[in-house]
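Appendix B. Raw example, untouched.
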Amino acid sequence: MIVTCPRCGFRFDTSYARAYSCKSCPVLSTSLTCDFIKCPKCGYEFELPQP
């Protein structure tokens, strides 16, 4: 899924962000699901939009 960061406007794929920005997240290390995503460009964390 492609999302746009509400802070900086960077468009990115959620799978890229999970691999790059969320790799050290303690929630993802214990669970495979999370309702938030972190922008790989500016680091802003926001709730994923519902499909």
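End of appendix B.
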